[in-house]
């Protein structure tokens, strides 16, 4: 099965490791498929504005550069490690209350999607781009500062737009996802090298972008594993 991680941050947002070194860390650890998913943060709240001030967000004006860098690193990763690297972002709607906040991965994104758009508009645009939508850390997490509950609280309304939910994120496992029988993946939410050792997804499919997306959407041949040093 393919060892995968679809939730990785670099210095394009709030990760501590640059893109090239991140690729090498994953390549040397033997990963088959990864997605680079730096934050695209909303700017209609105080904490959103702060993220922009500190340059912790991919923006409309550097999105093309971000895509090009990922593409060139993807080529290098394929040649050197046989590792598939997919373009992504984590749309991050940050507000003071965790009940109002939500993060979602857009995996295989092609064009910039602003985090200030409504949920419906974001989901419809992601579908138009044939990108995968993953609800991130959707329930209570051990680090309360990272909690985002909006999508879970509004799951009746939004579940139909969501291709998969994170059933595990780094050290946290969300049993509620299995109780609802939602489609799932597990990701590291990588920000630092030690986050490599965390929950991951295993997929039983071919190593190409369409097969990976189909496998997650059908959620057959999907497993999770705790990747440890
Ligand atoms: Zn997040
Ligand atoms: Zn994240």
Could you please describe the fold and organization of this structure?
The protein has helices at 19-28, 46-53, 60-81, 119-128, 150-153, 155-158, 175-179, 209-218; strands at 2-8, 33-41, 84-93, 102-107, 132-135, 164-169, 172-173, 184-187, 199-203, 222-226. The longest helix is centred in the first third of the chain and has 22 residues, at 60-81. It is 32% helix and 25% strand. The radius of gyration is 16 Å and the shape is globular. The two termini are 19 Å apart. The chain contains eight helices and ten strands. Strands 1, 2, 3, 4, 5, 6, 7, 8, 9 and 10 form a ten-stranded mixed beta sheet that branches. It has one domain: Alpha-Beta Barrel (TIM Barrel), CATH 3.20.20. The protein is of the alpha/beta class and 229 residues long. The structure holds zinc ion (2 copies). Residues 7, 9, 90, 136, 189 line the site of one zinc ion. Residues 90, 103, 136-137 line the site of one zinc ion.
């Amino acid at each position: 099965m393919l060892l995968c991680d679809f939730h990785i941050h670099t210095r394009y947002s709030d990760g501590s490791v640059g893109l090239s070194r991140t690729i090498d860390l994953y390549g040397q650890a033997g990963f088959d498929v990864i997605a680079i998913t730096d934050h695209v943060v909303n700017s209609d709240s105080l904490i959103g504005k702060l993220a922009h001030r500190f340059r912790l967000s991919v923006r409309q004006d550097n999105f093309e550069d971000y895509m090009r860098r990922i593409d060139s690193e993807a080529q290098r990763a394929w040649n050197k490690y046989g590792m598939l690297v997919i373009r992504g972002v984590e749309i991050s709607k940050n507000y003071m209350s965790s009940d109002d906040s939500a993060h979602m991965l857009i995996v295989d994104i092609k064009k910039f999607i602003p985090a200030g758009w409504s949920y419906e508009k974001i989901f419809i645009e992601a579908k138009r781009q044939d990108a995968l939508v993953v609800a991130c850390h959707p329930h209570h997490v051990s680090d309360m500062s990272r909690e985002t509950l909006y999508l879970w609280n509004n799951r009746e309304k939004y579940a139909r737009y969501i291709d998969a939910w994170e059933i595990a994120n780094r050290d946290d496992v969300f049993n509620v996802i299995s109780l609802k029988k939602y489609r799932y993946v597990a990701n590291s939410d990588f920000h630092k090298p030690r986050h490599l050792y965390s929950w991951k997804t295993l997929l039983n499919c071919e190593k190409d972008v369409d097969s990976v997306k189909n496998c997650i959407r059908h959620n057959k041949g999907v497993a999770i594993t705790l990747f440890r040093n």
